[in-house]
TrEMBL record:
Protein localization: Cytoplasm
Principal cellular location given in the protein's record: cytoplasm
GO molecular function: malate dehydrogenase (decarboxylating) (NADP+) activity; metal ion binding; NAD binding
Family of the protein in this entry: Belongs to the malic enzymes family.
Protein name stated in the entry: Malic enzyme
Cofactor notes: Divalent metal cations. Prefers magnesium or manganese.
Annotated residues for binding of a divalent metal cation: 281-282, 305
Pfam short name (any one): Malic_M
Record text on subunit structure and interactions: Homotetramer.
Ranges for domain Malic enzyme NAD-binding: 306-556
One Gene Ontology cellular component annotation held by this UniProt entry: mitochondrion
Keyword Transmembrane helix among UniProt keywords: no
UniProt binding sites for (S)-malate: 191, 444, 489
UniProt gene name: me1
């Protein structure tokens, strides 16, 4: 566009803007500054926002999918080849280019570039084969992307809030262009997957998580906000890295840190409302538990590493019970690891056992934990409050192998990010005193898994019931049997939980929600899935899984939903909120009048 009022040259600067008009869906268009200013004064326009002050080419929004009429009206005819493509052909083009990439990090960078250029096409590609693309946009590749974030950084996605922004967080939130935010994923980067302190590079996690909110849960991407709380890093390599994009000092802790979190939570609800979900992600144990305890009954929030991991692990256990033909309360479980994931899983297992009628004290006795110092037992020095709950009367033992042989558990669950912790001796021991041993190697990324799927199936002669946190390839045994390892991916949980709790405007998330979620996931595992070794529904059906988690049904039954009137058909209501990857119509409504109605009146002066 090159027309407009005379004056300052900024009048002719073009911006990509999202225009919200009363009674119509929002659209992203490119307009000159002077027209943006005009729209801001139009009472029928509810908002005009500028998501980014660069990459303003409207032709990149849909590419060659624009019709001729749209190209003419938008002033981009001639800027695109004289070819008109369907979105399906565009997907094919993306897939062909994707296949040319040499490694997973290149594939990650390629897909993130597509997300920047054409968001609808990005999600169309992801949803076309979730099982193929999830390991790239999320674990395990996202872990490598975080480690290389300074090198792969192309453009900012999300909001960066630092310790130096205290008392001004509300102002920073005003900078974010979207006003209707339903879900926030926030991290401080201290415990990224099993990789430790990645500081500001940890922003890759909230970005990846929220991409799955849309791909797996159907939440509109403009309603999602990734946030990095940068309080510094204790990673010396990052502090010395010239490409590091965060604050270059040691982590700030104590009162200043607590005040930052308090202000952040208050600012989020003041800006976006009490029904805005805040998901905590990859906070260190020392902060994760206190923050969850502090905020869970005050805000709509949950910690995915504690509660999301718990739900997906218990879903796998519930599916495994259909193979072992037993109840949860009949099992003895040993955890390799006693951090936030182990505690979350253990608490949800206790809830499942209590539901079967076993008293809580008896439930706790069936759960044992091994940390870096050995078996968690009473009388051991320096136990945290969380660990004390699972400390039993027993002699101290250092090695996991000795613990397994002594306690003879029916299930072992690895969540300590110690690669190879489930040794050949441990796996064979589990097989010796269990007809169908349950072996869950849940640590992420793949390089941190306690054992591989092949090791489990081979060493147990196909009798092991296996699940992992990151994906493993199918395993074929010498006798020809083929197993498809179950991936206990949190993506079965958090997109559906986020969709459900925001759909019915819940104010808090009780622990019951995660047991309801686990049960709903397990119910969707078919007998055929179990025969193949799958403890979870196929990943390509994950959006259906998210829709059928029954959270909205539970919320209204328990009087926790605040959206009224109550929808009669809950599933249809949830489906109505799912965003579409179809392109929007950009051409304005055009039509003609009768010729005599358009006669130009003339007169002589």
């Amino acid at each position: 566009m090159n027309s407009g009022p005379p004056g300052c040259s900024i009048c002719f600067v073009e911006f990509r803007v999202r225009v919200n008009v009363k009674g119509h869906s929002s659209k992203v268009v490119v307009l000159p500054f002077w027209l943006c200013a005009t729209l801001w004064c139009d009472p029928t326009v509810t908002s005009v926002t500028i998501p980014w002050l660069f990459d303003c080419s409207v032709s990149s929004l849909q590419g060659m999918a624009f019709s001729l009429e749209e190209r003419l009206q938008l002033g981009i005819h001639g800027l695109l080849p004289p070819c008109f493509l369907s979105q399906d052909v565009q997907v094919l083009r993306v897939l062909r280019n994707y296949e040319l990439k040499k490694d997973d990090l290149d594939r990650y960078v390629f897909l993130m570039g597509l997300q920047d250029r054409n968001e609808k096409l990005f999600y169309r590609v992801l949803t076309s084969d979730i099982e193929r693309f999830m390991p790239i946009v999320y674990t395990p590749t996202v872990g490598l992307a975080c480690q290389q974030y300074g090198l792969t950084f192309r453009r900012p996605r999300g909001l960066f809030i630092t310790i130096h922004d205290r008392s001004h967080i509300s102002t920073l939130l005003q900078s974010w262009p979207e006003k209707d935010i339903r879900a926030v994923v926030v991290t401080d980067g201290e415990r990224i997957l099993g990789l430790g302190d990645q500081g500001c590079y940890g922003m890759g996690i909230p970005v990846g998580k929220l991409a799955l909110y849309t791909a797996c849960g159907g939440m509109p991407p403009q309603q999602c906000l990734p946030v990095m709380l940068d309080v510094g890093t204790d990673n010396e390599e990052l502090l010395k890295d010239p490409l590091y994009i965060g604050l270059r000092h040691k982590r700030v802790r104590g009162q200043a840190y607590d005040e930052l979190l308090d202000e952040f939570m208050k600012a989020i609800t003041n800006r976006y409302g009490v029904n805005c979900l805040v998901q905590f992600e990859d906070f260190a144990n020392i902060n994760a538990f206190p923050l969850l305890s502090k905020y869970r009954n005050k805000y709509l929030t949950f910690n995915d590493d504690i509660q999301g991991t718990a739900a997906v692990a218990v879903a796998g256990l519930l599916a495994a019970l259909r193979i072992t033909k037993s109840k949860m309360s009949n099992h003895t479980i040993v955890f390799q690891g006693a951090g936030e994931a182990a505690m979350g899983i253990a608490e949800l297992i206790i809830m499942a056992m209590e539901k079967e009628g076993l008293p809580r004290e008896q439930c706790i006795k069936k759960i044992w934990m091994v940390d870096s110092k050995g078996l968690v037992v009473k009388g051991r020095d320096h136990l945290t409050h969380e660990k004390e709950r699972f400390a039993h009367e027993h002699a101290q033992m250092k090695k996991l192998e000795d613990v397994v042989k002594e306690l003879k558990p029916t299930a072992i669950i690895g969540v300590a990010a110690i690669a190879g912790a489930f040794t050949e001796e441990i796996i064979k021991a589990m097989s010796s005193f269990n007809k169908r041993p349950i072996i869950f190697a849940l640590s992420n990324p793949t390089s941190k898994a306690e054992c591989t799927a092949e090791q489990c199936y081979t060493l147990t002669e196909g009798q092991g019931i296996f699940a992992s946190g990151s994906p493993f390839d199918p395993v074929t045994l010498p006798d020809g049997r083929k197993f498809y390892p179950g991936q206990g991916n949190n993506a079965y949980v958090f997109p559906g939980v986020g969709l459900g709790v925001t759909a019915c405007a819940m104010r808090h998330i009780p622990e019951d929600i995660f047991l309801v979620t686990a049960e709903a996931i397990a119910e969707q595992v078919t007998e055929k899935n179990l025969a193949e070794g799958r403890l979870y529904p196929p990943l390509n059906s994950i959006r259906e899984v998210s829709i059928k988690l029954a959270i909205v049904e539970y919320a209204y039954k328990s009087k926790m939903a605040t959206l009224h009137p109550e929808p009669h058909d809950k599933e249809a209501f949830v489906r109505s909120l799912i965003c579409s990857t179809d392109y929007e119509e950009f051409a304005v409504d055009s039509y003609s009048w009768p010729e005599n109605a358009m006669t130009v009146q003339t007169c002589k002066l």
